[in-house]
Amino acid sequence: MSQPHQERPAGQSTPEEFFRTELHVGRVIKAEEFPAARKPAYRLLIDFGPLGEKRSSAQITARYTPDELVGRLIVAVTNFPPRQIATFMSEVLVLGVPDDEGEVILLRPDADVAPGTRVF
User: Fold this and answer.
1) CA end-to-end span of the chain, whole Å?
2) I want to staple 22 with a disulfide (CB 3.0 to 4.6 A). Which of 49, 79, 95, 98 is the partner?
3) How many whole angstroms separate alpha carbon 96 and alpha carbon 103?
4) What is the rounded CA–CA span in Å between residue 5 and residue 18?
């Protein structure tokens, strides 16, 4: 017997919907200025281990320099469709949270894990 359909509160998702979004840990292997972007950003090349290297445009210039980013672990959404950002195709969405001034603080694991590790 099937369950009756229940309305969900606006904005609420199911665990199944959430787990369709793939979050993986990656290691930044290259970071450079992206002057063609409308808002200040860096072009990142990120190693996701078995998933390969992916590119991302990230608006994180206020808190990070390119040198600080290289070697850093990050968390990114890896299964969104690529997006054209000016002259660059961004393949993954690097995740962060805003500080009190609205500048992005990158999400990262608090211990070293292998690039490509899936986040649950």
Assistant:
1) 31
2) 79
3) 9
4) 19
pLDDT score of 9: 82
CA–CA distance, 94 with 82 (Å, rounded to integer): 13
User: What phi and psi, each to the nearest 5 degrees, are found at residue 27?
Assistant: -115, 125
Helix (H, G, I), strand (E, B) or coil at 17: helix
Contacts (Cβ under 8 Å, ≥6 apart) of 61: 40, 41, 42
pLDDT tens across 55-83, in order?
999 999 999 999 999 999 999 999 999 99
pLDDT at 120: 87
The model's pTM is: 0.88
What is the per-residue pLDDT for 98?
A: 96
pLDDT of residue 11: 83
Residue by residue, DSSP assigns 31-67 as: EEE-TTSSS--EEEEEE-GGG-EEEEEE--TTT--HH
Q: Which of 89, 75, 83, 96 is nearest to 22 (CA)?
A: 75
C-beta separation of 54 from 92 below 8 A: yes
